Amino acid sequence: MSIPPASEPQGPEPVTRAPGQWPADLASTAPSAYPAPAYPTATVQPTNGAATASLVLGIVSIVTSLLFLPAIIGLVLGIVGVGRSRRSRPQVGRGKAIAGIVLSTIGLLTGIGIVSALTSGDDSGTGSAQAPIVQPQESEDGKTEGGEATEPTAAAEEPVAEPELPGVGDAVRDGKFEFTVTKVEPGVKEIGDEFLSQEAQGQFVLVHLTVENIGDESQYFDGNNVTGYDAKNREFAADTEAAIYLDDSNSFLNEINPGNSVMGVVVFDVPADVKLSQLELHDSAFSGGVEVALG
User: Fold this and answer.
1) Structurally, how many domains does the chain consist of?
2) Cβ within 8 Å of residue 167, ≥6 positions away
3) pLDDT at res. 129
């Protein structure tokens, strides 16, 4: 009887794995067989909150002109917004900031005009009405209606010369302000800098002047209270919007305390062939005003 040979001991069956497949206990350390999916990165667009806030407050200040706070804050935020737009590429919010400045300015001026109309009135005042002087009528035979003969006077035949107006360098006063025009600079085509500027429709005329408060309380100086005239007696308003682009213009709602003085520039945008010959300066929108010849 033959005994069959003992079979060789069998080891564990080999585990078949796909190429690149790692055991379960080493899966945590195995390199990824596939690269991580690429997700698009979000691009953050630059914003200019100050410009938006200035525009909103400018609109509010038009409606609530007597509440000066929205207009003042809107003006400040507009200037901040313009500065931020300069530093961003591309420039963001510049148009909103400028619109906020303009609307806040209109709201502020409207409120100041209403308050001035209600409180100050005309600084020059009006006295009691004088009775008209009635000259005796002269008849054809040289006698008055009372029967007495009249003699012509030489003074009546001579034209009365108009008084000469003060000029550049002369100090003149209206209300609480003393004005001195120091220089007139015509023919300026553009004002501002490379980032924020404005071109003239015709030419800018820059009137340099000194304003001193000679009253006993503070007063606002504003370029809107200065009017220009040419030789044809045409009237030209100051361009206060363009003055915003001019450094140190000091001609936009500049509050001056008693005894203080400022040096400012009032901007006019006039045709290229116009020469301003005269200014009319006021310490407020309703004052009597004073005239100065520009030569």
Assistant:
1) 2
2) 181, 292, 293, 294, 295
3) 47
Residue 198 falls inside a structural domain = yes
**DSSP character for 129?**
P
pLDDT digits 0-9 by tens, 120-138 = 654 544 444 455 555 656 5
Measured in degrees and rounded to the nearest 5, phi and psi for residue 267 equal -105, 130
Listed residue (196, 241, 191) closest to 94, CA to CA: 196
CATH number at residue 258: 2.60.40.1240
Whole-angstrom distance, CA of residue 195 vs CA of residue 161: 52
Q: Which domain covers residue 193, as residue numbers?
A: 171-293
Run of H or E residues at 241:
helix 240-244
* Residue 237 belongs to a domain: yes
Q: Clarify whether residues 289 and 204 are in a common domain.
A: yes
Which residue has tokens 């040096």?
263
Query: Measured at the alpha carbon of residue 20, what is the angle toward residues 14 and 23, in degrees to the nearest 5?
Result: 50
| pLDDT grade for 93, boundaries at 50, 70 and 90 | confident
- State the pLDDT at residue 225: 92
Residue closest to 163 by CA, chosen among 291, 288, 280: 291
Name the more confident of 149 and 112: 112
The Cα angle at residue 128 between residues 127 and 132, in degrees rounded to 5: 115
285 and 207 in a common domain? yes
| Dihedral (CA of 139, 144, 145, 146) sign | negative
